[in-house]
Amino acid sequence: MKKLFILSVVVMSLYDSVFAVSSTFEKAIWIPYWRKTEGASTTLEHLSSLTQISPFAYELQTDYSIKNAMKIESEPWTTLISDAKKKKIKIYPSILSYPHNEKEKNIQYLLFAQKKKRQAHVKEIVALVKKNKFDGIDIDYEAKLAESGPYFSLFLQELSTALHKDKKQLICTIEARTPPESRYATTSKKILSKVEYANDYKVIGRVCDQVRIMAYDQAGDDANLINKNKNAGVEYKPVADIEWIKKVLSLAMWDIPAKKIILGVPTYGYKYEVLPRIGTSTQKYSRIGSMNFKYADELAKNLNITPVRNSAGELSFSYATSTGINGEQLGGMK
User: Fold this and answer.
1) Contacts of 13 (CB under 8 A, 6+ apart)
2) Can you give the pTM of this predicted structure?
3) Number of folded domains in the chain?
4) Does residue 323 belong to any structural domain of this protein?
5) End-to-end distance of the chain based on CA atoms, in angstroms?
6) Is the pLDDT of residue 329 over 60?
7) Which of 48, 120, 177, 296 shows its CA 20 to 30 Å from the CA of 199?
8) Chain centre to alpha carbon of residue 185
9) Is residue 155 part of a domain?
10) How far lies 177's CA from each of 97, 201, 218, in Å?
11) Strands 136-141 and 315-319: what pairing?
């Protein structure tokens, strides 16, 4: 049996309405370079409804250089940026940093901790922004070591000061933070005293002009919600439970002004294969891919299925098949 969790359709349906409703809210999108044709054309189609765009233009390398991954000086980006500027839409390209192992995390840590490296990095970013006449930059540096905290704060403070001298803005993209009392199944003063974060919300709230919170890929981040659903006998595989998002925002707004916060929402869902565990009454869930709303909607219609809201407030549906993940036949299973 395959089970399809369209975990973020609730967000996607709202995403469509964002383009149709005029409001005072900032409306921004990230544009991936690995889907450049589709990303650029979709953005151009809805450009008039946006207030800012952030192409995933740059990547921080392990030698501390900034790679122009998007080749932003070439098409289709030149046309997109030109049209955006004509409509006075702000352009904040993203610099991405995501270390994949401890070695890379330590390399990232040294960039923040060593003054000369940190200041050189700040200068390179400012020069890049000025050269391309961007409105600012989006810093999306993830998976940092907790001990990076004080030095990452210094980096943001120095970058903010340097950008503001040229009337440019600093956008900070950060991971969602689950309150400790929800993240851990059991807590105590001792446990809470040991919790450390690389992102200092107080500093970020002060020096960043805008803070984008990546409120998605919740997975197992909220032990309370996991246990609540487990006790109710509900399979819980959320991308972004609405209750979790409320917790994330409530925590963030203690230190980050609400007017600076932009909620990053997912426009995708996950597909799982569900098989019975041999010798038990439980089921095994194997995630086999992701998909967008169009794919999921068409699949549901072809199967004559009406998706329903699950306990996370997200649309989901399941269907039976005799074909396995790799196309093999699963016998008499339906």
Assistant:
1) 293
2) 0.86
3) 1
4) no
5) 6
6) no
7) 120
8) 25
9) yes
10) 18, 10, 10
11) unpaired
Exposed, middle or buried, 287 (CB in 10 Å: 0-12/13-18/19+)?
Answer: exposed
Domain interval for residue 137: 13-266
Share of the chain above pLDDT 70, in %: 89
Torsion-angle region of residue 240: left (phi > 0), alpha (psi -120 to 50) or beta? beta
The CATH number covering residue 81 comes to 3.20.20.80
pLDDT digits (tens, 9 = 90+) for 101-138: 999 999 999 999 999 999 999 999 999 999 999 999 99
**In the numeric block, which tokens belong to residue 226?**
């996991």
Q: Report which of 64, 54, 200, 30 is spatially closest to residue 129, judged by C-alpha positions.
A: 54
85 residue type, one letter: K
Measured CA to CA, the distance from residue 11 to residue 313 in angstroms comes to 10
| CA nearest to 28, candidates 37, 13, 18 | 18
DSSP string, 176-211: ----HHHHSSS--HHHHHT---SS-HHHHHHH-SEE
Residue 5 falls within a domain, yes or no?
no
Closest CA to 122 of 5, 205, 207, 186: 207
Residue type, 111: L
Evaluate the omega torsion of the peptide bond into residue 307 and state whether it is cis, within 30 degrees of 0.
no
- Phi/psi class of residue 133: alpha, beta or left (left: φ > 0; alpha: ψ in -120 to 50)? left
User: Which has the minimum average pLDDT: 85-94, 134-143, 217-226?
Assistant: 217-226
Tell me if 81 is assigned to some domain: yes
Residue 75, class by beta-carbon neighbours within 10 Å (0-12 exposed, 13-18 middle, 19+ buried)? exposed
Residue 270 has pLDDT above 80, yes or no: yes
- pLDDT tens for each residue of 145-164: 999 999 999 999 999 999 99
Instruction: Confirm if 6 and 293 have CB atoms less than 8 A apart.
Output: yes
